[in-house]
# Entry
Amino acid sequence: MGEAMEWNPGLLLSTSSGYWRSCTIHAGVRLGVFTEIGGGKSTAADIAAKLAVDEKALGLLLNALSALGLLIKEKDLFANTPFAKKHLVKDAPDYLGYIIMHHHFLVDGWQQLHDAVANGTAVPEKPHDEERKRESFLMGMFNIAMSIAPQIASLVDLSGRKQLLDLGGGPGTHAIFFCKANAQLSATIFDRPTTAPFARETVKKFGFEDRIGFVGGDFTLDPIPGSYDAAWLSQILHSNGPDQCQNIINKAVGVLEPGGLIMIHDFFLNDSMDGPIFPALFSLNMLLNNGVGRSYSEKEVTAMLEKAGINDIQRLPFQGPNDSAVLCGIT
# Structure
């Protein structure tokens, strides 16, 4: 059964217009408003001049961001709140702007949800700056992983294991923290070749170039080279249909040594598939974007692991943002 919500007209209308708030934040990030203000105070005129945008329209945006509690307005001066300084200024260590921009690029699809449901297919994408879109996705995954990877690495026992496969690992954030927590461990990120620059830059930033390598390929089609005693599959099953998910798990298990550990991190639905809210909504996101992926229940993924010959399947005592979880098992 889904999560109980006490609906009323006010909640219904605020939820229906909730995209006004998200699009206001998206605009602030895309234009670089928070980064331009930084740790100082500026007028709308000064910010507009530096960003080369319309002063009057920017004033409306700055007032709205102030109403949302992300900026502080004192007379005609605007400053970042402590939260905005921490998460929305681009050079801040806890910057979340990339994942916000990823959400921004998804808006076009979500406004066509009725067509996707009517036709049962993904919707056409509007043209975007593909390089910026790719950067927003990959570094957005980095934003999210940075908040959970240290915790997951502390919960997984990789003592004695030497080679980790980070399948579809993007910038390799989890591989970095697994290696950081286990001095004997090396890792290989296997992902599309277009991901390589982001992965290598991130690995270099953390000083793990000698222990973490990158191999380019499509894990749904290409063979996975090497042999490993641990495999990490984070947020990749939901992009694929059930048969393809089984194939991906089979391929990962196929390169694991006897006694190897497989770990699957994803958004998990309950067994009745009607909650929690985020995984249920995320299934619609995948309908819009590729028409085949969706969120899976723990029961479904457990069955896939068992079919691939995995034993001792357990769920880690971890619950991430948006109800992500980790299932582990042994070959």
In short: The chain has a mean pLDDT of 95.
